[in-house]
Write a structure and sequence with these properties.
single chain, 206 residues, alpha+beta, L-fuculose-1-phosphate Aldolase, eight-stranded mixed β-sheet, 35% helix, globular
């Protein structure tokens, strides 16, 4: 169930505080949004520090990403729009930045997917009930052209509709959920798994 704009703002601020404490929102990086019950989204403005969010640093936009008030939304608003349109059940989208994602994806310059297997933490993803599962997270090339990136994201997610999150090389993670709690769980699990994979590469494999 979607939320009122006011409740969405409160949830986004709480998520920002928590993710900042987890060192997943350095400087002013990342962007967070929620679908609201008026068919719009609440999304963080450009340049706001996510650990110090105020209500006026969150704004309304339509589901095409068009601002509905005189503020500048995140440059990556279109990537949020894509997820809301592809997944009608999704009501929260989080984009984080971490050392693990930035480093690991650059150590895999030719890879289009990160395959995660054998981890108990995989059960944090919806529909995964055993560590014996295999989860493929798409890796997209970083670009400032959000139109081009959104087109590639749409193509891949349509081919792999059960994808729980995706990575942008040298950049960050996008995770989503039916509510903010699920989106946070997906992000936290994904960042933990990325850290595990990075450490495995550092020690030369297992």
């Amino acid at each position: 169930m979607t939320l009122s704009y006011k409740n969405a703002v409160n949830d986004i601020i709480k998520a920002g505080n928590r993710l900042d404490r987890m060192q997943l929102a350095p400087a002013t990086s990342g962007n967070y949004s929620m679908r609201t019950n008026d068919g719009e989204m609440a999304i963080t403005v450009s340049g706001a520090h996510k650990g110090q969010l105020q209500a006026d640093q969150i704004m309304r936009a339509d589901l095409d990403g068009t601002p509905l008030e005189g503020k500048k939304p995140s440059a990556e608003t279109l990537l949020h729009s894509v997820l809301y349109k592809l997944y009608p059940e999704v009501n929260a989208v989080l984009h984080t930045h971490s050392i693990a994602c930035s480093v690991l994806t650059r150590l895999m310059p030719q890879d289009k997917f990160l395959v995660l297997e054998g981890y108990e933490m995989l059960k944090a993803y919806a529909g995964v009930e055993t560590h014996e599962a295999s989860v493929r997270l798409p890796i997209f090339e970083n670009t400032q052209d959000m139109n081009a990136l959104s087109e590639v994201v749409i193509e891949v997610l349509k081919a792999f509709p059960k994808t729980p999150a995706y990575l942008i090389r040298g950049h960050g993670v996008y995770g989503w959920g039916r509510d903010m709690a699920e989106a946070e769980r997906v992000i936290e699990a994904t960042e933990m798994l990325l850290s595990c994979e990075m450490h495995i590469k550092q020690i030369g494999g297992i």
